[in-house]
Amino acid sequence: MNKIEKERHVLVIYPHPDDEALGVSGTLAIYAKNNVPITYACLTLGEMGRNLGNPPFATRETLPKVRKKELEKAAEVIGIQDLRMMGLRDKTVEFEDDEKMVKLVTDLIEELNPSLIITFYPGYSVHPDHEATGRAVVRAVRRIPVEKRPKLYCTAFSKDCERNLGEPDIVNDIREVQDIKIAALKAHISQTAWMLKGLEESIAQNNPISERLTIERLWSYQWDRDEVD
Amino acid sequence: MEPILADKVQEYINQFAGKDVYIHVETTNGAYASHFNEGFFSAGCFIRNAKVNYEHGKIAGTGPYRIGLKLDLGWIYVEGLTHFELDDQGRLLLSGHGHDGKLAAALEISHTPFD
User: Fold this and answer.
1) Pure H helices in chain B
2) Is residue B99 part of a domain?
3) Most exposed: A146, A180, A197, B3, by fewest CB within 10 Å?
């Protein structure tokens, strides 16, 4: 288990509202409690999500408005003061111009001078938007001279991530902010209702608490085996 | 959204016929289909804001429903539709939800471009 290091500014870049809650809301809540400024650049509004409620309470056209509100609520719960919605469209991130994507990230880095960036690990993050986001961040950070680079931590969840990357080197104990993580997941209720039902049943049955609520796992980007083209 | 009433939807389809309209059409298995089920072959597509003018359209089946719109030079076809709504902007929104409630198909028709 790691002791969470003090940071100057944390920049989080993910493509979908709820990526932050699922992956790193506990870690971010701890930074927020320590008064570390956090910027979350969320690239899309998850417009193409398949969860519209059962029976459906949202439509394809109202979903982005629903998810925008959920994102704002989650940011508030976690303690993210600087939430930016970057206006891309769900499912299309990988088709944007690569150089435009690098510039989007570079502009944020130059403006904010973060000591730590958190994104998805390219190659190990399953969804094409996750992969494209991670690639853009790696390309942008790679252009910064090594001695000036912010730290780059990545979440990953492909089936082969541990086989290829090894055990994550950053394992944060988030039990002290468990309630905040649950609240962040609940904020994204249109997308997390199914998962939360399972979690609550599990807690009600006194099963061991899901690992999702006790630790968060991240990998420092392995620059010595950088596979992004 | 409410479960499709075929007669009602047919009326709406008729109202959009013969006019320039914008279409959103989509089918999807979800981006995680092959992650959760490794043998699964995932396929899908979407087109947003295609501008077309269909001469007529029909809803068919007994639910889930199929819709076909006959174009000057071709067709728009979607199957697996279960729900509909005429929204507050006068757009006809149709979607198909699987047994788990998740969206699997959509067809939307509007007089103005979608956001």
Assistant:
1) 6-16, 33-36
2) yes
3) A146
